[in-house]
Design a protein that fits this description.
Helix 2 (about 45-55) runs antiparallel to helix 3 (about 60-75), helix 2 runs parallel beside helix 4 and helix 3 (about 60-75) runs antiparallel to helix 4 (about 80-95). The chain has one domain (about 20-120). It is globular and about 45 Å long. The longest helix is centred in the N-terminal third of the chain and has 20 residues, at about 20-35. The protein has helices at about 20-35, 45-55, 60-75, 80-95, 115-120. It is built from five helices and no strands. The chain starts with 17 loop residues before the first helix and ends in a 9-residue tail after the last helix. By secondary structure, it is mainly α. It comes from Microcystis aeruginosa (strain NIES-843 / IAM M-2473). Keywords: Membrane, Transmembrane, Transmembrane helix. This is Ubiquinone biosynthesis protein. Pfam families: Coq4. One of its GO terms (biological process) is ubiquinone biosynthetic process.
């Protein structure tokens, strides 16, 4: 609750296909992915999460958002591009080496400690707080 996450932030969508279900599930669990990965909710954290998501789901929208972030940095602070790119690549690689987040039934294990989730999913990177 510290970050004021709202599970009903996104508008509800009708589920009429597998694609609809996947999009709904991505929306429902977006904030959970932030918490479990340890990526912040600032601009950098969103780009990191999109890179992680891209490696896990191959979702085209993730590419668009990452490219938008890179273009924004190019125009606003070009000297930050190297470090931004490094963070994006690191997050992408983390997603490749982590168990699938879409396959998790988060709502069936709210009582499971965050550290246990991270261990089970093989989330390992230097930005994590325990």
């Amino acid at each position: 609750m510290r970050l004021n996450f709202d599970p009903n932030f996104y508008r509800s969508i009708q589920v009429n296909s597998d694609t609809d279900y996947l999009l709904l599930r991505l929306r429902q669990t977006h904030d959970i992915w932030h918490i479990v990965t340890g990526f912040g909710v600032d601009g950098m954290g969103e780009l990191q999460l999109k890179a992680f998501e891209l490696s896990q789901t191959r979702r085209p929208l993730a590419i668009v958002i990452i490219l938008g972030g890179l273009l924004g940095a190019l125009f606003s602070s070009p000297l930050s591009l190297h470090s931004l790119w490094k963070e994006i690549v690191t997050a992408y690689n983390l997603g490749k080496n982590t168990r699938p987040f879409l396959a998790q039934k988060w709502e069936l294990a709210w009582e499971k400690p965050l550290l246990v989730w991270r261990q089970e999913l093989a989330i390992v990177h230097s930005n994590l707080e325990n």
